[in-house]
Amino acid sequence: MSDERNYDFKGLSGDAELEALLESVRRDIGEAAPEPKSPPRPAVAPRPAAPVRETAPAREAAPAAGPARSGRYPETQPAQRGAPQAQPIRQARPNAARTPSAPERGGGQRQEPRPAARRRAEGEERELPPQRERIRVVHPEDEEPEKPRRGRFGLALGIYAAVLILLLAAGCTLLWFYLDAYEVTRPEDAMESFAELADEKYWSDALEGAFTVGETPFEDRGELMNELCLDLLRENPLEYREDEGWSESNMVYIVSAGGEDVCRVTLGEVAEGGDAGFGFTYLAVTRVELLASFTAPAAHEITVTVPADASLYVNGVAVTEEYIDSALTPESGESVGELEAGRVDELFRVYRIGGLYAPAELYAADAEGKPLELNGEVTDEAAAYALGEGALDYRLLVPEGSTISVNGVELDESYNTGDTLTPAFLEGFGDYGTLPELELWLVEGLHLEPEIEVRDAEGEELDEPAAADGELIYFGSGDQAAQDAHGAEASAFMEAYAAYLSGEAASEENYTALQALVLDGSELETALKALHDDYAENGLSVERVRARSGSFVPIGSTCCVCTVDVEYSAGEDAEDVETAYTIVLVMYGGVWLAAAVVS
């Protein structure tokens, strides 16, 4: 209690009141209470300390001349001179509910002062002069924050800002309505609405009565309207542009799809209920006019070149011969080889098909039904099909040093195989003499029977060849002496042979007479027996039999080869048929007999 002996306790009455005041100060500053010397009092539940304004001495007290008034109070240190006003100190609130420990209780609990005594002590405390104010203890949670003072300028600024915000909001709202009215009344907005609302049903109904095309076997009106018009509108977005002479009083637009003009659209103001505000008026479509170029497309024609034996189909319909135009030159392209380039008129036919509106679907097949390939670029006006592979191959046996021309084109050495051969039908006659050896030339892949011309080394044109086993055999210049010696025998045999084939001399007597002119055991005798066993006349009549001049080629002294031409008549309305027969004559028993015949 020595720290309290310098305090001035004037004005305090009674030990109890002084003790209560000191106890309150100790609790506020967190100092443990001294052990009381008085006997323990009854325990009273501690109450939380209420925040009170307490003052501490501001002026240094004069040192006491003598000991303290009571020996129970400790001496106090002289107070430091400081500011005349009290300074607030924030301090954690002591736990009012905490029960003092045993050393603090000093063997007993302190009894709270009576309420009346506390009020009297507080009253006396408030009467202390400012310089005697004690230190005020304020807990942070009990301290009220100081409210900033607002001046009149801040209030006016806030009101001005609020009014300005309201004016801006009203202006923005008004501007939004103005822009909306402007947008919905623009001609572009009406055209966009038309493009969105014009669906497939709308166009189909509009085109039903306006679409105009001619009738052809290859196209249907409904399919044309769907392909030329509706497909174009389905697959392409609608676009519009101002028509010539457009003005605000004459708002006319051209609507197109896929680059093709479709219709002309006219806009006008809505008469009733068309006011959109702000002086704007709603617009609406007043007229839609389909363009003739869209509803009545122009017809076109197409020329198609196909092989002469091919069949042509347009949109699945077969094209008849009435569409063939012989005045047109076929576009053969690269499908024709050099040996047949001069015969394209014979190889191809040209069809001219008019009255078409849509691109045509073409299909061509050869004589066997196999599809043909298109040759070159195909347009809406022209198309050409390539020839298939040619099926005609020729083996030409010619004398050495000969020159060959096919369809007017002279063959180069690439066609010469370099081989020398004896004709196949002469291979069994080597015992009669020296058989001729001829050069082999190959011509393959032709489509038409060729026109062949062969000249020997001296430039002389050789006679028509003998045809045997797919070979064309040119023997060279004949022997006139052999022709003079054996021409009669050759003609006599051929007259009997042709009469038997035609049926004019098909009796057993005629057959027996024919056998007398044939070499026994030869291939010709075997062939005649097979023909007689299954005989069928050819329906022709023999008109003329003639041994070809210059065709007699001797093979030794007892064998020769010659060619005999026979002309048959097929009737009054049919053309005559000419056939060349190559005969091998041999001498047997002093008589010249036929040993082989090829044609």
From TrEMBL:
Residues 36-49 have a biased composition (Pro residues). The chain crosses the membrane at residues 157-179. Residues 50-98 have a biased composition (Low complexity). Keywords: Membrane, Transmembrane, Transmembrane helix. It comes from the Bacteria. Residues 23-149 are annotated as: Disordered. Residues 111-140 have a biased composition (Basic and acidic residues). The keyword Membrane applies. This is Uncharacterized protein. It comes from Candidatus Scatomorpha merdipullorum.
